[in-house]
């Protein structure tokens, strides 16, 4: 018995060491990426790349995408493709605006979650119970949600806006925002250090300043939910059973797992995450509600989930990448021009990795794209405003095109499941 205990202790220590080494590796990788970004900032003079304002804007742009991506992760890990994330986010924007106007900002968050979960329930009813094709159900949900929120806005918000002489029949302004948190003293010092534009030091200060200056409590909640998702799906019995439903539901059923119940729980949770993303748009990102407020962020969240290889850490990275590029269109145009050089460096690194793995053809194609971006950067001084607005969507296409070969979705993802099929 003592030998078994000692062996278990050794295995536990080895696991902790492995986790510590992994965390150290990720920290060093993040520092290396920040050093490259800092070098590009110094070389191009585009100081807005890592200013505290840009990072704070990137955080605000990242959170709705991240919540949609987490919603997609929950659904697809259970084997249900949720194209309806966009529609569930739209439902969340209206539910959050209505409840926030009448009851308060935190009740608005709950309203957004509830309306998004309702959209998830409809998607689960169609796909899990009635066996409707997942893509068809998701597209139908998106169309219905857009029409429904437009109707509800005109029905409920027109009189409210006319009463105060603001807005229009399809929007609601003046909503109260959730609380913001600033760490006194630390925030000001970091902002001052960031404005000195020193190599790497000022960039680190810009990131830390963004994390300590006027941070919404909802933003903190979003990143907590990433950790909660990772723990629940990968460290609990419930999460193991849920993921087994996405890999092999027949085998899971044969072992006594209630596949239908787990799929419903996952898709409703997926809608709740997307609804919270819609609430974030209405209460944190902007000062009110507008029809079709999501602007395709549900689809970008789905792309971030695929880029992240259906894992929470990858989802966080992908969402941050898309959120950062989305926020740049609101900054100085020279910042987007400097982004061309960053994209070229990233593609060159990806091409080198493909070359080392023996995929010379893929390396040559990606390297050619890297050369195109370098030439584009060298022969121009600014990027057209029209291109700036489409930057996040273009980056989405590039990432999915070049990263698709290393991805592995759950094996039963998108398949119609019938109870009793295991026998």
Give a written overview of the molecule.
- With 423 residues, the protein is mainly alpha-helical.
- It has helices at residues 2-44, 52-77, 85-102, 105-129, 134-156, 158-164, 186-194, 201-212, 217-235, 237-247, 249-254, 259-285, 297-307, 312-328, 333-356, 360-379, 385-403, and strands spanning 171-173, 180-181, 215-216, 288-290.
- A two-stranded antiparallel ribbon has the order 1-4.
- Helix 2 (52-77) packs across helix 14 (312-328) and helix 3 packs across helix 12.
- Residues 1-17 have low confidence and may be disordered.
The largest sheet, given as strand count, sense and whether it forms a barrel, is: 2 strands, antiparallel
Number of strands: 4
| CA(first)-CA(last) distance | 41 Å
Structural class: mainly alpha
Biggest β-sheet: strands ordered side by side in the sheet: 1-4
- pLDDT averaged over residues: 87
Query: How much beta, percentage-wise?
Result: under 5%
| Uncertain runs | 1-17
Number of helices: 17
Q: Sum up the overall morphology in one term.
A: globular
Taking all Cα atoms into account, the compactness measure Rg is 23 Å
Topology as H/E string? Answer: HHHHHHEEHHEHHHHEHHHHH
Percent of residues in helices comes to over 70%
Ordered list of secondary-structure elements with their pairings:
Layout: H1 2-44, H2 52-77, H3 85-102, H4 105-129, H5 134-156, H6 158-164, E1 171-173, E2 180-181, H7 186-194, H8 201-212, E3 215-216, H9 217-235, H10 237-247, H11 249-254, H12 259-285, E4 288-290, H13 297-307, H14 312-328, H15 333-356, H16 360-379, H17 385-403
Antiparallel strand pairs: 1-4, 2-3
Helix pairs in contact: 2-8, 2-9, 2-12, 2-13, 2-14, 3-4, 3-5, 3-12, 3-13, 4-5, 4-12, 7-8, 9-10, 10-12, 13-14, 13-17, 14-17, 15-16
């Amino acid at each position: 018995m003592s030998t078994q205990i000692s062996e278990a202790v050794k295995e536990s220590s080895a696991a902790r060491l492995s986790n510590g080494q992994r965390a150290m590796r990720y920290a060093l990788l993040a520092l290396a990426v920040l050093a490259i970004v800092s070098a590009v900032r110094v070389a191009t003079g585009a100081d807005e790349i890592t200013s505290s304002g840009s990072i704070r804007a990137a955080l605000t742009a990242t959170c709705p995408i991240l919540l949609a991506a987490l919603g997609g992760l929950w659904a697809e890990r259970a084997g249900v493709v949720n194209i309806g994330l966009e529609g569930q986010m739209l439902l969340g924007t209206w539910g959050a605006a209505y409840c926030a106007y009448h009851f308060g900002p935190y009740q608005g968050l709950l309203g957004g979650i509830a309306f998004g979960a309702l959209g998830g329930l409809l998607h689960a009813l169609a796909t899990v119970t009635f066996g409707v094709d997942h893509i068809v159900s998701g597209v139908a949900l998106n169309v219905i949600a857009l029409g429904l929120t437009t109707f509800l806005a005109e029905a409920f918000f027109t009189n409210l806006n006319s009463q105060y002489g603001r807005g229009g029949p399809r929007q609601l302004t003046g909503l109260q925002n959730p609380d913001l948190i600033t760490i006194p003293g630390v925030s000001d010092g970091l902002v001052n250090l960031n404005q000195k534009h020193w190599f790497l030091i000022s960039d680190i200060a810009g990131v830390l300043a963004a994390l300590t200056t006027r941070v919404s409590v909802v933003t903190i909640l979003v990143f907590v939910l990433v950790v909660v998702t990772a723990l629940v799906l990968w460290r609990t019995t419930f999460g193991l059973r849920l993921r087994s439903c996405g890999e092999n539901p027949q085998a899971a059923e044969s072992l006594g797992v209630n596949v239908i119940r787990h799929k419903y729980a996952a898709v409703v949770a997926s809608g709740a995450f997307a609804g919270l993303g819609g609430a974030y748009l209405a209460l944190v990102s902007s000062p009110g509600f507008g029809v079709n407020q999501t602007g395709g962020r549900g689809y970008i969240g789905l792309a971030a989930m695929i880029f992240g290889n259906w894992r929470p850490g990858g989802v966080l990275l992908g969402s941050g990448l898309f959120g950062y590029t989305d926020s740049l269109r609101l900054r100085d145009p020279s910042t987007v021009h400097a982004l061309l050089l960053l994209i070229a460096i990233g593609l060159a690194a990806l091409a080198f990795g493909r070359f080392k793995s023996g995929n010379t053809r893929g390396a040559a194609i990606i390297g050619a794209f890297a050369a195109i971006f370098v030439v584009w950067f060298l022969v121009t001084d600014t990027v057209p405003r029209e291109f700036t607005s489409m930057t996040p969507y273009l980056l989405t296409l590039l990432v999915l095109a070049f990263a698709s070969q290393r991805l592995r979705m759950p094996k039963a993802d998108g398949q119609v499941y019938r109870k009793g099929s295991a026998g």
